[in-house]
Amino acid sequence: MWLDPEHRDSGEGRALVGYVRVWAQERELGPLIAHCSPCNHGGQAFYEAIGMRAVAVVYQEDLDDSAEHGRSGSRKRRQSRLRGDYALLDQ
């Protein structure tokens, strides 16, 4: 889930998560999991404020797959503006 910054602190994020909770509970799904970047302190505070808790630490290693698999540099690694992870994008 992601909420446009213009709509934050308006109750819309809380309402969105509430809708997802009800939808999942009606279908007997669970648990409800949200991934949040370690540098997204606002997101962490939001999830904790609505009753969620941190339960895992995830480690990531970004590998250069072009060298490993004999590929030319046809794909480029770019850091996401919204999260601390990386996306491989075709050029």
UniProtKB/TrEMBL annotation:
* UniProt-recorded name of the protein: N-acetyltransferase domain-containing protein
Q: Where is this region: Disordered?
A: 65-84
Q: Which domain of life is it from?
A: Bacteria
Q: Where is the signal peptide?
A: none
Q: Which PROSITE patterns is this protein grouped with?
A: GNAT (PS51186)
Domain named N-acetyltransferase: which ranges? Answer: 1-74
Q: Which residues form a coiled coil?
A: none
Q: List, alphabetically, the Gene3D superfamilies matched.
A: 3.40.630.30
Where are the compositionally biased (Basic residues) regions? 72-81
Origin species, per record, is Streptomyces rectiviolaceus
Q: Which SUPFAM superfamilies match?
A: Acyl-CoA N-acyltransferases (Nat)
InterPro entries in the record: Acyl_CoA_acyltransferase, GNAT_dom
Q: Name one Pfam family in it.
A: Acetyltransf_1
